[in-house]
Predict the 3D structure of the following.
Amino acid sequence: MSFLEEFQANLESLPVILQKKYALLRDLDKSLQEIQRQNEQRCEQEIEDIRRGVRSGNITPDTSVIRFSNEALDEQKHSIRIAGEKVALAVQAYDLVDTRIQQLDRYLKKFDEELRRERENAAISGVPTSAPDGNTKSGRGNEGGRGGRKKRQTSVAVATEAQPAPVNPTGMELDLPVDPNEPTYCFCNQVSYGEMVACDNPDCKIEWFHFGCVGLKEQPKGKWYCSNCAVTKNRRRGK
């Protein structure tokens, strides 16, 4: 049985085990609430009896002598035991889930290592794959409104054709080999991927930036300038 099959088998049994423990927790909680209710009523009644005895003079108002009945004390001790059982069950349920999470972490780590080895082997063997089109980027529907600005194209395409392509020219964990002639962008000097945003400075040397590299989660409203162009713009305003 592989690790994945073993993990799936253990995971399938987890909901049933948790359901049984939660059902037992509910039963214990009901018992605890009933015992606490009875104990509160008993203690209130005993306190009222003590007050009447003190007022009538039958009981000496000495706090070192006055105490609850053994029945009331036993109920309180029983409540503490049930509460301890509830805590133990909750810890067991937590440990069960935590164990499955640790198993999943180990599987994901092993799966990631296998994928990395497959990509390295594919790159070394030179398996031909189609590279993504360098003229398109996801999440950039407003690209046509840039006044006809075009992305930078590499001027050394002919020279690089005679050189062997590096294993991972971008340093990224990509599913497909990257075209060494594809232009790079952003502060990270990587190829186009994911959501990107263009700097509104027509003289920007970089032009396009990845959302994650500039701290964006969605397309900015209005004009947007990269940090370099923003500093230059502010300096010009200060003059």
Residues 128-177 have pLDDT under 50 and may be disordered. The longest strand covers residues 196-198.
